[in-house]
Amino acid sequence: MIQTVLVIIIVSLSVAAAAVKLYRFLNPSPTMNTCSPDACAACPYRRDMTCSEKIKKN
Amino acid sequence: MRLSELNKGQQGIITRVRGRGPFRKRITEMGFIKGKSVTVIKNAPMKDPVEYRLMDSNISLRHSEARLIEVEFPYNQAVMPPVPLSGKGHCYDTDHSARMYGNGTVTARSPLTSGRPEKQSRTIHVALVGNPNSGKTTIFNHASGSRERVGNYSGVTVESRDARFNHRGVAFLITDLPGTYSISAYSPEELFVRNHIIENRPDVVINVIDASNIERNLYLTSQLLEMGVKVVVALNMYDEFQKKGDILDHDALGTLMGIPFVPTTGPTGKGMGDLFDAVMAVHENREKTARTVSINYGPDIEKAILSLQTAMDEAGMGAAPVPSRYAAIKLLEKDPEAERHLSCMNGGAAAVIQQAARELRALESELKEDTETLIADARYGFIAGALRETYRPAPRPEVTASERIDRILTHQVLGFPIFLLFMWLTFQLTFTVGKYPMGWIGTGTSYLSRMITAAMEPGLLRELLTDGIIAGIGGVIVFIPSILILFFTISLMEDTGYMARAAFIMDRLMHALGLHGKSFIPLIMGFGCNVPAIMATRTLESRKDRVLTMLIVPFMSCSARLPVYVLFISAFFPGHPGTVLFGMYLLGIITAVLSAVVLKNTFFRKVEAPFVMELPPYRLPRLKNTTRHMWDRGKEYMKKIGGIVLAAAIIIWALGRFPEQREIAERYDDRIIAAQKHYQAEIDRTAQGDRAAVISFNEKMESDVQAIEHAKAEERLEHSYIGMLGRLIEPALAPLGFDWRMSVSIITGLAAKEIAVSTMGILYHADTNSAGGSGSLIARIKEQKYLSGPLAGRPVFDPLTALGYMAFMLLYIPCVATLATMKRESGSWKWPLFSAFLTITLAWTTAFLIRHIGLLAGWIQ
Predict the structure, then answer these.
(1) Under a CB-based contact definition with an 8 Å cutoff, are residues B592 and B555 in contact?
(2) Which of B171, B244, B246, B803 is the most exposed place for a label (fewest CB within 10 A)?
(3) B846 has pLDDT over 80
(4) DSSP 8-state class, residue B3
């Protein structure tokens, strides 16, 4: 019985961990560097920033 | 004559640089200016690109680019005889520069130290700026105790990294920036570095200079001077400089340029204390050397600069984040970013831009040369003037050690075969050395499994531990030694500088494919992990190049696929492990090449961008650095095993264990009881004293019971949740010879490719009680047979299926992390979805062709 309860807990935790991991892949935290030239107006690699984007960035 | 017309060993003096736009700007800034001497070192295999020596550095240019540079023979090289590769070129440079620029280019202005010393009470923000491969990240790591990736080739750092540390009780925030030859806005790295300096305003910029190539490196320093930032120069790799016998009065050079110069040796940390002492002194305005020095661009350009400064003052742009002189020079250099920045400001920006256009027209018509070149020439003149008084180069050897090594390693004919031989040796080593620790780890996991079985009561938890966690994790953990060996050898190639030569050897091929030369760096990084490789595409200037490189990076076989190869190669190709593994990597490269050709001619048609590449000197790898790199990769792998692979193993076990299926269990339990009763009756009938017959019946009973237990596990698995999923997708993969378990492993491998092996460990019941460890999974897959259907009784795996499966794992959809990174970098789901479609189509087709061509050819019965 104890073994069954422990297994239920371990499997539930694993499912939760996998779900969190997947969520983080798809929705990275703001601390991650997601600023690429094609996805982010403030990317330092980006060269075609408009004035409003530049002002917003600064 | 053109530079491309010079033969190997010949020297030329640059008379004119043709071309326009970014290419012209880049090569001018790298030192291809009027009066400089260039020597042809050699051609790459396929005769393109060509390696040239210019200002103590070796640079690779394609023929098409070299055609844009006009040269003449030096006066001492009369009728084109090839000359030995000596240091004469350098002497000529110095004399020539002296003729051109004289002594009066340095003008000193009021020193920065005029005010009170700035009392430091806060964190000093320091930015590391320098040419690619000058050792910025090594200094960053040494100063802050960080362990960021370094390598003996350009482009390793693509984004800024921060670290904090204390020096003499003062807090420092240090930022490592990508390497750049200048801070114009022509390449993404240049823009990145310039924006960082302007927007983040570091208190002090440490300009890291490769001391053995001081003249070219000082070009960037001259630009930093104009930005009005406080600069300290780290004369890095000073040990190499001293070995060459050159003499530099760095104190005098510092006085001339108004910046303190501190000799450092990054890898050993020598001079690091002095460097940060100098940073503190400059920050607190205590450093007497530090003062504002302006480059004199000559009367015409100076007049234009002054006129633009006045126009900016009149337009009320005094509060701009950069000095007005710097902004004026940028406008005269036709810097598009400067214009854009000005146009974003309020006031009379339009008037200033119009004024700049007028000045440009007047200057170019008066001086018969474009202003970008004139300004670059003046900067190099300033540098040459400063060096003439402070620097004495020692005579150079006829041929440098790097060139002697390169005569063999990048030989026109032998270059390719040697590159392939190194790759093959790497893979062979992975197996021959890796098999011993693999065996030890395998024995360890089996021992652990037997201990748990003996120590615990039968139950779900024991099953989870032995059949789920140990079978799943144990199947993957045994490959750690192979991964460590692979990364050790790759790191050796990077640290010595051979990887940059690989780019040189492959450049013609990349060019033929229409890929930007810079794409090579992300592709090489892809052998480690596809995620940072996709992020490294940020440095490519055009979106088309970025997306195309992103799409082919997943074909570079990352380390996560290695366990799959090692498993199947150990099982089915034990006679030629290195060759088959090499073949898998080669298949990935060939697929990437063919995909690039097709995509380039369909979705990504555009004009090829030029690429100028510097070849670093060969360096002896430092064992500490190489081992650290290997260990970091191993640590990443173990973290993955302890995280996503462990969670996946538990979930896969649970999906294979449930629903409970009591009916099946009871049916098989009845059969076990019947078998036991049958053998017990036979034993009872045996004549007393016939011990041999009793032992024989007991053995038969045990064997039958084990067979029934195995059949019970198989049937339960087939009716489990994971079995249902496997059966659902099996028809799609059946033409490739894959059974439902393989199909499941392909699905679970989407989370991370190592999970495919972990899944096999669980689904093929690799365990547990055999003494083979990983050998047990290898043995299991070799002995697997179809239990039902038209193929019943035939082996599931044969060499063709194994080869097809490995090819499928190599080519099919990259892992979720790679797809998510692709989405982040490209800004939409369009390209990751396209990549998923492309890769799965290619994987299926390749595996199908391998199987059916093999069957038709009669490779297996």
Answers:
(1) yes
(2) B171
(3) yes
(4) G
Cα angle vertex B629, ends B626, B635, to 5°?
140
CB spacing of A14 vs B827 below 8 angstroms: no
| Residue numbers in B near A25 (CB within 8 A) | 816-817, 820
**Peptide bond just before B617 cis, omega within 30 deg:** no
C-alpha span between B367 and B382 (Å, rounded): 19
Which strand ranges, in their side-by-side order, compose the sheet holding B69-72?
A: B69-72, B11-17, B37-43, B50-54, B57-61, B613-615
* DSSP state at residue B163: E
Please give the helix or strand (H or E) that residue B172 lies within, else none: strand B170-176
pLDDT(B76) > 60: no
* Dist CA B667 CA B632 (whole Å): 51
Evaluate whether ipTM surpasses 0.90. no
- B155 neighbors B518 (Cβ within 8 angstroms): yes
Max CA separation in chain B (angstroms): 122
More confident residue, B145 or B220: B220
Pairing of strands B231-236, B106-108: unpaired
In A, what residues contact B, Cβ < 8 A? 2-4, 6-7, 10-11, 14-15, 17-18, 21-22, 25-26, 28, 33-34, 36-40, 43-45, 47, 49, 51, 54-55, 58
A18 contacts in B (CB within 8 Å)?
A: 644, 647-648, 651, 751
Residue B734 is given by DSSP the state G
Number of C-alpha atoms within 13 angstroms, CB side, residue B781? 29
| Terminal alpha carbon distance of chain A | 61
Highest mean pLDDT among B39-48, B103-112, B569-578: B569-578
Give me the pLDDT at residue B5, please.
Answer: 85
Query: Is residue B2 helix, strand or coil?
Result: strand
Tokens matching residue B782: 């070799």
Q: Is the pTM of the predicted complex or chain greater than 0.80? A: no
Query: Which candidate, B678, B783, B800, B821, places its Cα nearest to that of B738?
Result: B800
